[in-house]
Amino acid sequence: MRVTTAFSRMLALDGVRVWHVAFGAEAITVSLAPRRRALVCPECGYKTMARYDTRPVVSRWRHLDLGIWRLELTSTLRRLCCPSHGVRTEAVPFARAGSRFTADFEDLVAWLATAMDKTAICALVRIDWDSVGRILTRVMSTSIDLTRLDGLFRIGIDDVSWRRHHHYLTLVSDHDTSRIVWGAPGRDTATADSFFDELGEQRSGQLEAVSADMAAAYTNSVKARATKAVICYDPFHVVQVRREAPCVRGWVRGPPRWAVAAAW
Asked: What angle do CA 257, 262, 264 make, to 5 degrees?
């Protein structure tokens, strides 16, 4: 079996064929040639048989490592004239538009981001911090589960901060599946309202319980947008308030125990 045939079967990339393989000291470079005649616009998917010209430089993508070697894919791509977006370099089936990494590589990085921090990811796959961030943005924009907001009944809303509490991110989790289903920068009422805007009136009406801290921003949003849901304050913040607040007549120490327990 020839080396090119072996790599063609091993990579199993759609729409291209391997015509050359070069072994270097630290990397293996696999040269690809497109199989399809039609050119596809990376922005809208427009197809045409007419070629505008050929890109003067070789395109390069980082693929999944092969043992101790980096695996790099190269190809000379064509350009087309899209009626909506003008002259564009043709899309390839194995990589997202504008990316220097293959879709398989980016999917791996996105999965690693759910299990470890950025520093560990950079050391493992040998890329920089900024590349990790851009990869996550591309994966989220093309591969996010559009049904993740369906069937929500018990959710949690909380915020996380970084850079000494100068930046905040509001996250919404599904208590039934223990998964994060939504996130956006900020931690005010407008941020929470944007979640309910995406959720929609019908699905918001299906919510039975919403756990959150005792911040007025989240409470006001839930009361206005999920009118049937029970607001469940988490025990940590309830205990903190009880410790710090004065014990005076008429002061409400917190929600009833059943409301706290509902969040768990």
From this structure: 110
